[in-house]
Amino acid sequence: MSQRIAVVGAGFIGRSWAMVFSKAGHQVTLYDIDPTALAEAMSLLEVNLADLESNGLIHSKDDLLGRIQPFETLEKAIEGANWVQENALENVDVKRELFNRMDKLLPEQTILASSTSAISCSDISKGMKGAGRMVVAHPANPPYLLPIVELSGAPETKIETISRAKDLLEAADMEVITLNKEIKGFVLNRLQVALLNEAFKLVEDGIVSGADLDKTIKHGLGLRWSIMGPMETIDLNAPGGIRDYLERFGPAFETIAKEQSSLRPWDSTRYKKMEEERRRVMSLNDLNKRARWRDRRLMALARHKEESDKHYGK
Amino acid sequence: MSQRIAVVGAGFIGRSWAMVFSKAGHQVTLYDIDPTALAEAMSLLEVNLADLESNGLIHSKDDLLGRIQPFETLEKAIEGANWVQENALENVDVKRELFNRMDKLLPEQTILASSTSAISCSDISKGMKGAGRMVVAHPANPPYLLPIVELSGAPETKIETISRAKDLLEAADMEVITLNKEIKGFVLNRLQVALLNEAFKLVEDGIVSGADLDKTIKHGLGLRWSIMGPMETIDLNAPGGIRDYLERFGPAFETIAKEQSSLRPWDSTRYKKMEEERRRVMSLNDLNKRARWRDRRLMALARHKEESDKHYGK
Fold it and tell me: What is the torsion angle, in degrees rounded to the nearest 10, for the CA atoms of residue A104, residue A109, residue A114 and residue A120?
């Protein structure tokens, strides 16, 4: 059923959400505090949607674009919305003020969702009258090409809010996970940090080059993990399943985990080293071109997964 | 140029190597200490190769099978080999004895490679006359569907051995990384352990279910990581590249890394919990069927990557 979705903040994440919700058939309103950014957003959307169309991921860019309407005031943009997806600055004061303002303007059944990747739901909704209808819906980057969304509520968030949010996002073809408690960084970035932390150590210690580190994932673990999660992966890697696997490899893995637990600073020395490693592989001037390559590859991969899901099962 | 490759140990990893080397046009000899396993291996190879053929990953199963010859004695199997790929039990004494025996039988230009995932090269080659031509060539599972190979030598391993090994494996369409120093677990499994360790904690702490944990990777990080490594991923996620990214997110990531550094036992409580989580998603009886599904999906993914590499660039 078509709903009215207000996307607040027309940067990259906001625009991605606008495409996701429009693709799902919803009426999308788009707002940005900066009118220039808002106007620019509409032409950037046209480019992205054309790309999606030519890659076979949507039928008609014009249909999708026709359902996205820009508004220069917040009040107009959110009026009548069933769902607000906020993508403002990653600043807790900015977000608190914005959500409190929207909370006063909107009827209580409207869900208020933040895309924040770093701020907890309760840090934003604490003391807000409508804290029960607020949720963090944290997407991956870029959200219009990666379906995952993490739903995380504050202790005050109503269970009903979470289940309605899940339903609406799943109906929009997103893959939703639910966090039962708040945790810093949510799940996706915590998993990323765990892997990066070890990756950086291996590079810093001269065990492998940054280029080889990347190859290990790209031509190894990443392939399995793009069709299965890490738990299913090991469940299928021993005759008796995950427990059998852990009984075989757990003692060795525990020794490795102990070695990995040593703390090392995330500081400018580390950042400089990682930059050197990457710049050996790719010039800074090529980043934009490579980001377009990434998006095309992610589109092709999305199409491939869609077809393979149908052909072989999910 | 066609070489003679001896695959020692005809279990799953050995058979996979036989397919890899045969696909590359080499003459492959296959040996197993157990004659029944050796006979069985030839019919299992036929099934796997038929699968590869019907999935468009090889032209002719009969060609490949025709280049694989079983031998019931080690001496016959390795005679005249340019390369030996060992896949015996993961037991250091077994491997030391086996390599010392082969070292005496083979001329010094033959490369001796072990597929071990848990034993270091120097633990096997220490004191062996031909330690200079020994290397670990650790593949991912399953090696005939995941191209990554980790090359790790002992301090005694000659640089020339590493470079010849790299050349031969790359010519066989494998993606090779080189470890500059020995390290427990090599690179791939250390990265896997780092991620699993955090994944298990999140599940143990009730933050997410095992099913949702897997979704986070499968529909999120795993998609990016199947086309780019983790370093390239973040290099493309900030306007100024990896350093810019780390300057923005590093402080928050360091806080998370500190939280993650707490030690937790890899014990039966953990294994039991993870088994419960997986068995909620999939019955133990369905593991074999699912493993076949995985292999078909990995084949389809390999084909997809091949086509996308051609069309969009690597």
Answer: 90
CA distances in angstroms from A288 to A4, A53, A108, A210, listed in the order given: 34, 21, 42, 20
Q: Using CA atoms, how far apart are residues A10 and A43, in angstroms rounded to an integer?
A: 11
B194-230 burial: b if 16+ Cβ within 10 Å, else e: bbbbbbbbbbeeebbbbbbbbbbbbbbbbbbbbbbbb
Domains of chain A are 4-184 (3.40.50.720), 187-281 (1.10.1040.10)
- C-alpha dist (Å) from residue B100 to A128, B14, B30, B95, B128: 73, 19, 19, 8, 6
The runs of H, that is alpha helices, within chain B are 12-23, 35-54, 61-66, 74-78, 92-105, 121-125, 159-171, 186-204, 210-216, 222-225, 230-235, 241-260, 268-281, 287-312
> CA-CA distance, A52 to B81, in Å (whole number)?
52
pLDDT, tens digit, 9 for 90 and up, residues A247-268: 999 999 999 999 999 999 999 9
Question: Are A150 and A137 contacting, i.e. CB atoms less than 8 angstroms apart?
Answer: yes
The pLDDT tens digits of the residues spanning B69-78 come to 999 999 999 9
Contacts of A232 in chain B (CB under 8 A): 214, 218, 278, 281-282, 290
Instruction: Choose among B9, B182, B200: nearest CA to B94.
Output: B9
Token pair in block for residue B243? 């350093």
Give the pLDDT confidence score for residue B42 in this predicted structure: 97
Given an 8 Å threshold on Cβ–Cβ distance, is A210 in contact with B221?
no
> Do A219 and B175 make contact, defined as CB atoms within 8 angstroms?
yes
Given the structure tokens 């073809």, which residue do they identify?
Answer: A173
CB distance A55 to A299 below 8 Å: yes
Q: How many CA atoms lie within 13 A of A146 on its CB side?
A: 27
Q: Is the peptide bond preceding residue B155 cis, with omega within 30 degrees of 0? A: no
Q: Which residues contact B279 (CB under 8 A, 6 or more apart)?
A: A241
Is the pLDDT at B141 greater than 90? The verdict is no
What residues contact A209, with CB distance under 8 A and at least 6 apart?
A203, A277, A280
In sequence order, what are the residues at sequence separation of 6 or more whose Cβ sits closer than 8 angstroms to the Cβ of residue B56? Answer: B303
> What is the C-alpha to C-alpha distance for residues A311 and A307, in angstroms, rounded to an integer?
6
Residues in chain B with CB shorter than 8 Å from the CB of A151 are: none
Q: Which single residue is written with the structure tokens 């963090």?
A: A136
Determine whether the interchain pair A216/B294 forms a contact, defined as Cβ–Cβ distance below 8 Å. Answer: no
What type of residue sits at position A228? M
> pTM of this prediction?
0.97
Residues of B with Cβ-Cβ distance to A272 under 8 angstroms: 243
Structure tokens at B277: 């989580």
**Token output for A270:** 């580390």
Per the document, the length of chain A is 314
Q: Which residue of B has its CA nearest to A287?
A: B236
Burial class (CB in 10 A: 0-12, 13-18, 19+), B4: middle
What's the pLDDT at A213? Answer: 98
Burial of A112 (0-12, 13-18, 19+ CB in 10 A): buried
* A215, closest residue in chain B (CA to CA): B229
Which of A141, A177, A261 has its CB closest to that of B237?
A141
Predicted pLDDT at B110:
98
Contact pairs from chain A to chain B, CB under 8 Å: 382
- Give the chain A residue nearest B247 (alpha carbons): A271
